[in-house]
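Hi everyone,

Forwarding the result from last night's run.
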Amino acid sequence: MSLFLLILLLINPKIKTTTYKNIKPTLSILVDNSKSIDFFKEKENVKDLISTLKSNTSLNDKFALENFAFGDDLQIEDSLSFNANETNIYKALNDLHNLNKSKNAPILLITDGNQTIGNDYEFINTKQKIYPIVVGDTTIYKDLKISQVNVNKYSYIKNKFPAEVILNYQGNENVTTKLSIFSGGKVVYSKNISFSKEANSKIITTNLASIKEGVNYYTASLQKIENEKNIQNNTKNFSVEVIDEQTKVLILSTVLHPDIGALKKAIESNKQRSVDVFLIDKFKNQINDYQLVVLFNPNNEFKNIFTKIKQNNNNFILISGANTDWNFLNNQQLGFSKKFINQTENYGANYNGNFLTFLQKDIGFNQFSPLEDKFGEILFSKDHQDLLTQNINGLQTNQPLLSVLDVNNQKISVLFGEGIWKWRATSFLNTNSFQEFDQFIGNLVQFTASNKKRSRLEVNTENLYPANSNINISAFYTDKNYQFDARASLEITITNTETKETKKLPLSLINNSYQVSVNNLISGNYNFKVDVLGQNIKKYGKFKVTDYQIEEQFTSANKSKLLKLASKTGGKLYYKTQIESLIENLLEDKRYFTTQKSIDKEQNLIDWKWILFLVVVLFTAEWFIRKYFGKI
């Protein structure tokens, strides 16, 4: 018996069974949970629609119902509040597509069709059939709307900045209105504008004066026309930060070189900066007349200039090259030196993504032509950061190509190589514009020319936020060596300047920044303070929450766009009164059917644990029996 059971264990007989499972098609019910539904007074109608769909027995028999809601993001629908501040129909549909990619899962989209953020949902690519159910008023009313205001974030004092206002009109009649732009309660621009059924869009461009330094708030407003139902979208707020930045730059050189012309053009692309160029033997002025000095290929003729720079602690940019006298520079004790030989080398550029001194993106530095300088090792005796490192014939090194120093309130930038004019030309060939290169030089000039002490705490926020929007604030904090510090605890205090109500919130560490999202702030002006807990480091700022409600800018449901969406995806558009017709069509549609899936399952015919136990018992019994009869 023991041997038989052992053989049975080795054979391990199995039995194979097949079961079948019916899989119903999925029907996703996607509900707009934004404030626009409440604005159109459709809350109860939407709830009734969902209740009708969920309670229909035939629909539940044919489909597996899934319920979702969306505002700016997709969520599982458990209870509807209709308080989402933004609507992103595209993201909700795309997320559902990814969720049911392998299923036959039509979508019932209950919405007014008005989207405030995200990609245009009319052009979404999905294999699922979409059946929009239109809620909201579909009547077309006369309506004026300021769709968008385009301005630069910054302007310079006593300068003018362009403002572009995009206007739209909905209606069949010819109308005339007036566009006004206000600042500080005063009209700074106005213009009469006419619209018709055909000419229903206008782009108005004007130049506004930058008079007051700091954040300046503006309001663009369209005068109400007769019988206009919704005037919420007739007004739009915008802001511009006015900077007082007048920079004079001096370039001194021993020789004429194409780099000088490239630098002059790049620096002067910012109209608030002017450049004077002198050969060193022709310069008779005072360097204190300039906020920044650029020293090109310096030699011992620069001795008096370096003496004045040290006396006045002037900021400067140094560019070395084939004609640079490194013996002279090494004796100036500038914080860096070079062990060189009288032979030149070509140095390519590698971008350093860990550079933190100022914000500079990679504009394709590794594709630029090599720069020429004396060959040798560069040594630093002061703290520095490298924006670019050297690449010699494809070999990456840790030697610097472009470095910055910020020591004792003096800022120095050093470019170890000449030939930067080729970079400007290559940048133009790559992008058909000098903008990226000029901005790179502008960032370098702005950092080096600034006398402001570098802050260890930087806070990023907008000047204006729409009412009830999510206010996202991020902060960047570094240690004493200006390396990002992920160990700190940051806290923000937000104060309403009118009610004096305060709110304190911690900032969360997300990737390489500290972030916080603030909700439910009433309209008004706010001051904020970001504290690094345990450190005497603070940052102050302000922003404004406007009265403008994004979700209240529409006068009617966007039936035409929903119709195009249904047509493109093979679905059909329905109105809220046609819910029974929708259910009937879904039940009769042969494209949605239950599939049967076979599941093969193998099971052991014996339980090996019990068989093994029995074998052990039998062998044990045999041993005792043999022992008892003297057979062992």
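The longest strand covers residues 336-351.

Cheers,
N.
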